[in-house]
Each structure stands twice: as C-alpha cells, then as structure tokens.
Amino acid sequence: MKKKKTIKQGLILSLLILIIIIFAIIYLCSPSFQLRKKGYQSNEITLIEKNLTDKEISNLIKSNHKTPIKDLEKQPLFQRKKLSSYVTFDQSYPNHKANQIVKAVNLNLHKQKGFDIKKLDRYLSFYQTYQNLDIKYIISLVNQNIDRLEIKDPDFLLSVITEKYYIENRLPRYLQYHDTHPTFKVSIVVRHVNANADYEYYTNTTPSNPNDQLLILANKYTYLDANYKPNDLVTVEGDFMVRKEVKDAYQKMSQQAQQEGLSFHMNSAYRSYQSQQQVYREYQQKFGQAYADKYASRPGYSEHQTGLAIDITTRRVRFNSFDETEEYQWLQNHAHEYGFILRFPKGLEQITGYSYEPWHYRYVGVEAATKIKQENITLEEYYAYYVNP
C-alpha cells in the first residue's frame, strides 16, 4: 500500500515538473519573453502588446534593430495609436532620434512623394519655420534646396505656391524676381516668370520644339532654326502662305464674318527666316537696334516663320486703327471658335515682349484658343503651364 502511494506521488511530481517545463517552454517562446530578452522593459512590453499586431511584434523581435519605445513615449507629441507607425518608421529608417521619428510620422513626411530620409533634419527644420505650409510643399521645396536660400519675404513664399499658375521648378526665379520687384502682385510675378519675362530679351534662349505642332513657340526667348519651314504650306488670298489647317480655319471664319456683313483683309502670313532677316534689318537701319527689337522680331524668333500667324485688317482700315472696327470686335468675340487668338494683347506687353498689335492673330487650334480666351492668358503662359511646365 505504501509502495503504491509512493508511486502515485512520483507520478504527480513528474506531471507537475512536466507542466512546469511546458509552461516554461511556452513562456520562453512567448513574445513577452522575447521582447524582454531583446531589452525591452515591462512598461514597454505592455505598450507594445496593446498597440501592435502579432505580426508587427514578431517582426520587431526578429529585427536586428531595437526601436527605442521608452524614448518615443517620452516625447510630448507621442500618440499611442500611432505606435505601429513609429515602429515601422524606425525599422525602415534606423538610428534617428525619438523626437525626429515622432514628428516625421505625425506629419506623414515619409508618405509624401519625393521623401528622402537623408533630408529629414531639413524637412523638420523648414516645417518649423513654415508650419502653415502643406506637407507636400515642405518636401518639394526642400528637395529644390529652397530652404538653403535667403528668403527675404516669407509671406510671399506662402502666397506664391498657391497661385493658380505656379510651376514648382520656377520657384527660385519667382523669389528672385519678387526681390527685385517687391511691389508687384504675386500673380504678376508668376505671369512674368512663366513667360520668361524675368530675363532680358534674347537671353536664356532655347530652340523651339517642332513636336509641339500647332503650339510651337517662337518669341524673344524661343527660336526656330534658320532652315525651319512647315511642309504643308498652301496659298491663301493671293500670294500669302499659311499651313493647310490655318487656311481652312481662316476661310471658315472669314466666310462667317462676311455673312454678318464684315470683311477681313490679310496683310501678312508666312515669312521665311531670310525674309524676316530682311524685315528686321530694315527696321534696324532706319530706327536703330532698340526700336527694331521693340517692333520687329529677330530672324528665327518670328511667329510668321511657323506658318501659323496672320495679320488681319480691313481694306478700308489698316493696322493701328483696326481695333476701332466692327471686324476687330467680331474677332474678339469669335476668333477662338475657329482656333485663333489675339497674339499681342494690350496691357500684356511685358509678358509677350511685343507692343499691342490688334491685327496679329495666331492659330493654336480651337481647344487651346478657347482656354486662352477663357483664362485671359497669353500663349507664353499657356505653353509654360499646360504644354511644357
């Protein structure tokens, strides 16, 4: 009887030892033990287990990097609900200070297009100065090294990036132009820079892009090759030549005007590089360089070489008086419906680079002409913002 009792006690003891071993193994394999083994304290483990998923805890344990949970929790801006994001950020970009991690995650810096972890200090520093800026602007401006410029007027910076026709890569030029023209409105600064009017005429020039087709640009900053000549030129109104699409549109427009008792007269259309060279030289010889640059185009810089520009008046009224006619008023109301725009409007000489010419019309197609008309902008601005920003 005593022997049976001894055996029974032995079995119970063995069972207890087995149970202890099993629990020990379970504990040793538990996330809590693994986290403690990794160096986390009890309060950190509690925080982790309450705010991270099993998978996130597993990844934290397996990682070679120990996220400073305790330091994160000490930060004034720390949010428990964002612990998972803090940990993910720290695991993705190790060895950053706890305050940097918390600020970066709270601002969603790492989720912005163009985010560069190497510039984290600069992002946070720039944000400290411009806390009213949308975070996407913080990233883009620092990436453009704007934070390294001496910004004399912080209010202008805040205003210009929300201007309708703001183009990101031109910001340094907006800032510089504003510094030299502090009385100009923000919208004027943007319009002038978009049209390259912050440069002296015929400086910082670039070649025109033939692939732009109907929107090809030729002005005092963009030039056509001396050999450029459209391959679809046709004659219109006698000896004048324009591109085929321009002829068709002009004839439709002219016919509609005639039905309303009006009559157009074409004075000029396509001019070759050589022809423009002759025109420019005549102005230059008669009136001097400054006058020639104000009222004529240098060879290669004339729209007439594109085959898309025409000069329209009436037989009874020529050029400077054309804007006093019914024909001019009709064009103001309807030219865009046929794809034409008044190329050099009154009051926008600084943008176009040319004096007001009520007779000079440029074909750009109905879609572009309508938008230019509706938004009251020039071809330079349309091109900069919609075609080649």
Protein model, in words:
- The chain is an alpha+beta fold and 389 residues long.
- The protein has three domains: 44-106; 119-194, no CATH class; 206-387, Muramoyl-pentapeptide Carboxypeptidase, domain 2 (2-Layer Sandwich), CATH 3.30.1380.10.
- Helices cover 50% and strands 8% of the residues.
- The chain has a four-stranded antiparallel beta sheet with strand order 5-6-8-7. Strands 1-2 form a two-stranded parallel ribbon.
- Strand 3 (233-236) and strand 4 (240-243) form a beta hairpin.
- The longest helix has 28 residues, at 2-29.
- The protein is elongated and about 130 Å long.
At a glance:
This protein is α+β, with helices and mostly antiparallel strands. It has helices at 2-29, 31-38, 42-51, 54-62, 69-73, 83-92, 98-106, 120-129, 135-143, 154-160, 171-180, 186-194, 244-259, 273-287, 289-295, 326-334, 349-352, 366-375, 379-387, and strands at residues 206-207, 222-223, 233-236, 240-243, 265-268, 309-313, 340-344, 357-363. The longest helix is centred in the N-terminal third of the chain and has 28 residues, at 2-29.
